[in-house]
# Entry
Amino acid sequence: MVKRLVELMDVAKKKGKKVLSVAVAQDVEVLKAVTEAVKLGIVDAILVGDKESIVDILKKERLYKDNIKIVDEKDPSKAAAAAVKLVSEGKAQFIMKGMIKTADLLRAVLNKEAGLRGKELLSHVMIYDVPSYHKLLFLTDGGMLPYPNLEEKAGIIKNAVFVTHKMGINLPKIASLCAVEVVNPTMQATLDAAVLTQMNRRGQINGCIVDGPLSLDIAVSKISAEHKQITSEVAGDTDILLVPNIESGNLLGKSMTYFAGAESAGIIVGAKCPVVLVSRSDSAKSKLYSIALGSIVS
# Structure
């Protein structure tokens, strides 16, 4: 079982080298991450974008160039479509966002002609390596679905469980986060959390342990659970934090990064291949971890 993000590199290598397609690749931090992943033997890469700009960055930053192909396409929309086509044709196994808006890349991924749109819900899964926590924390969904309903939350759980299983966490513990740890009829998130917990207990949601509603302190601290007299298998040992909406997920994730010094990795799952997608402000190291994660999941 992977407990720290740095371990993703070894896991990715053991899974075998994949081919990564990068859409609109002319971005310094993206190219630093991609070339390092290639150097480590995790992936070979096909960079789609403005070839002149890509080559300039590679030369200026003195980046590793072996096992890298460049497809020249200056128009961002056409570059995204070309990067997606590489995956649909089997020339690459997964795709990464470069200097392009998320919505524009997903439009190319979800294009019916591309053939990458599966039957599953698309959702975003982030992994945070928080120094003060004893294992990795998965957070979902803070980047894709704004206000998921009950059915969508069940789909979000399914996607997150798929990722944890790929990483050797066979029975992840999921905290359905709310502001309080009791069911309150005026707070929809607590109602959804209670139903998801019951669905899990009745076998409608499998491969995991779901409990909620749980407040964040109970989810990550056994001491808090004891003080509040909450008995839960998940309390203080959570693997997956299921957030009620995109704002809470975004704020919680950035709080872990900027206040707790957490490193992170992120992908979109639910399509026929993972989409490596992290914030433009994230470091090259975070992007490298995300590539390794995408390689493991693909």
Q: What stands out?
A: The longest strand covers residues 43-49. The longest helix spans residues 150-166. The CA atoms of residues 1 and 168 lie 5 Å apart.
